[in-house]
Amino acid sequence: MMQRARDLDAADPIAHFRDRFDLPEGVIYLDGNSLGPLPKASRERLHQVIDAEWGEGLIRSWNELPGGGGDWIAMPQRVGAKIAPLVGAKPHEVIACDSVSVNLAKLIGAALSLNPGRNVVLSEPGNFPTDLYMIQGQSQVEQRLAERDQMIDALDEDVALLLLTHVHYKTGEMFDMERLTRAAHDVGAIVLWDLSHSGGAVPVDVNGANADLAVGCGYKYLNGGPGAPAYAFVAERHHGDFSQPLTGWFGHAQPFAFSDEYEPAEGVKRLLAGTPPVLAMAALESGVELIAEIGMEALVAKSRALSEFFRECVADLDLDLVSPRDPAQRGSQLSFRHANAYALSQALIARGVIGDFRDPDILRLGFAPAYLRFVDIAEAARHLAQVLETGEWQRDEFATRAAVT
Amino acid sequence: MMQRARDLDAADPIAHFRDRFDLPEGVIYLDGNSLGPLPKASRERLHQVIDAEWGEGLIRSWNELPGGGGDWIAMPQRVGAKIAPLVGAKPHEVIACDSVSVNLAKLIGAALSLNPGRNVVLSEPGNFPTDLYMIQGQSQVEQRLAERDQMIDALDEDVALLLLTHVHYKTGEMFDMERLTRAAHDVGAIVLWDLSHSGGAVPVDVNGANADLAVGCGYKYLNGGPGAPAYAFVAERHHGDFSQPLTGWFGHAQPFAFSDEYEPAEGVKRLLAGTPPVLAMAALESGVELIAEIGMEALVAKSRALSEFFRECVADLDLDLVSPRDPAQRGSQLSFRHANAYALSQALIARGVIGDFRDPDILRLGFAPAYLRFVDIAEAARHLAQVLETGEWQRDEFATRAAVT
């Protein structure tokens, strides 16, 4: 397998992008679907923002600085415009701001504003928790949950919004965005796609699917840094009509007029609430630029090749794959069910293979294509085989749960 | 004046803390009330978080790292606990998260949950815009505005929440927190204080005043960096009862159980929504530590001395002070009304004296005590006198408004 891995690496047209990341020694990182690693350019960009823009430019950096840089005021839209082509959106349809959770509250509100008289939000049980929790927090909303195979039947004319996560965080299963969007539109519902496990890893075409709204995460496949700002998409056709409830001053048509009456800015800019987190936004911008430079087509092809190669490497092991077998039907991850998944994940981490565990019994391995090599995949598979063979996962040290699992 | 300034600096017990900041050459920075400067320790801390925690620790940094550091999961509460004593709160009553705007939405919702059956939120015209806008965004809320001298009369049993900014962003006027809180409680209203222009600059004692809720800004006097996370306070007596609408996964009692049903975490932790912005949170923590090290008593004393000294230096100029004359009645700023305030502020900036302008006619000068010297004050006053005397502010170049003013 190792020779085949080396051959695949030699033929990989985006292999050299690995050097653009700062990856720790002795680690095979299969958790880029949870937190992407540090791009070297992001370190440089952060140093520049810290020293030149915050330290030296101070308040002046809200405007463009004479020698370039600054222009903090434009960051949310500028970063959004760079994310847009990665998910099939137009540049002015995406903005970077706040967290996925906070953006969900805004877009649930936007859906209600576009669909007055309806109050049901339909989703699936087992969706990423924050998607469900944010529905539950809105007092005017009624939550309805349906299993995947009953989703279309659960759509009716009470449904204001269908809120689904495109790629399931736990299993990696992918919804057919176009089909579900069409079905929702057939009953007059708005659709909101959570792209957190999709953007930068799988083909996404929000406009091709005629989606209305979307949110996505900045710190997974976009490598924007821990807790990076999220992004939000509103289809252009809704720009004139939607409102959202978190009407902060940065979403005002003229924030620096300091008027008493809220007046929404044009388009997605009205999704802004408070002052953008400049340091975090700069790291996100740098991460997005790198993914855009590599290009989605090459990333998708390699993502599929990596995960298929892993399947090949572990074909002889007794593993219960819960992700779809067809790589076009899943995200950039493979998830395995095992009664001792937590201990397994810890035993792998002790060997330098960092994947993760999802309650109660899922071992989740992510295959971020921007920096992983096929030799990493072969090595990770070898470690997994040894962990299972030796039973070393049964050691006491791997049983104690950490605060964050 | 310059000799007096030098004497005052020589006698200043916290003068040496200036060296803990990285201030640009040739600049007198009177805008720390808008964006605080870069503490040297924050640069070091950010480098460490970028390299050791993100780059090397990766996902493992959510837990405490073996050699120390990491523990990202605890940051919002840890940073909140460090802010708490600066505003008279107990450590477990404050949490750092999101922006002031987003936290206002949460706490308006919290007030309604504590005061069912009422829906009026009372504030004042001319409050900082985002405070009013966030009221206006909540569809179930009725906004009522009253001028300062009619505020207590405007309180009645329809008022769910009195939402005021402790120190006015434009004029620097300070509300009597204790008196207004008592008046609100007399009619059964909850009180929410916006401490954005107070925390780290003036004496604040939320528990002494019996306040219910508060929010504050991280990037002004706390020097947390551009767009730093904000903080939110909920008095302990409400911890068992309040709910808030932005029910994201980080505010769940067991976020990593990934259950479908939202169950709020204990106390202020339920104010969390999405994943905390780690880089921004680290810079805020470092900024707060420095302010805490200097100590509020010394900061308040110097703040008053600096602004009084400025008043003395400009006593002979024809200036229309809109801030209260009694330093105990104002924030750490002096604001002057002038028909050409924008051009004046630009002419000062051209001389290296950075203050700011607030629409339509306010020149605002902030006196952040942690790093300003009395010689800076004397110099700034001298520049202001010259700008007025020479009329250089009338130059065309100072008339064109920048994007951010």
From TrEMBL, chains A, B:
Pyridoxal 5'-phosphate binds at residues 101, 128-131, 165, 194, 197, 219, 249, 275. Pfam families: KYNU_C (PF22580). The keyword Magnesium does not apply. It comes from the Bacteria. Coiled coil: none annotated. Its cofactor is pyridoxal 5'-phosphate. Its EC number is 3.7.1.3. InterPro entries: Kynureninase, PyrdxlP-dep_Trfase, PyrdxlP-dep_Trfase_major, PyrdxlP-dep_Trfase_small. It catalyses: L-kynurenine + H2O = anthranilate + L-alanine + H(+); 3-hydroxy-L-kynurenine + H2O = 3-hydroxyanthranilate + L-alanine + H(+). Keywords: Hydrolase, Pyridine nucleotide biosynthesis, Pyridoxal phosphate. One of its GO terms (molecular function) is kynureninase activity. The keyword Lipid metabolism does not apply. It is an enzyme of class 3 (hydrolase). Pathway: Cofactor biosynthesis; NAD(+) biosynthesis; quinolinate from L-kynurenine: step 2/3; Amino-acid degradation; L-kynurenine degradation; L-alanine and anthranilate from L-kynurenine: step 1/1. Belongs to the kynureninase family. PANTHER family: KYNURENINASE. NCBIfam families: kynureninase. Homodimer. HAMAP family: Kynureninase. Catalyzes the cleavage of L-kynurenine (L-Kyn) and L-3-hydroxykynurenine (L-3OHKyn) into anthranilic acid (AA) and 3-hydroxyanthranilic acid (3-OHAA), respectively. This is Kynureninase. The gene is kynU.
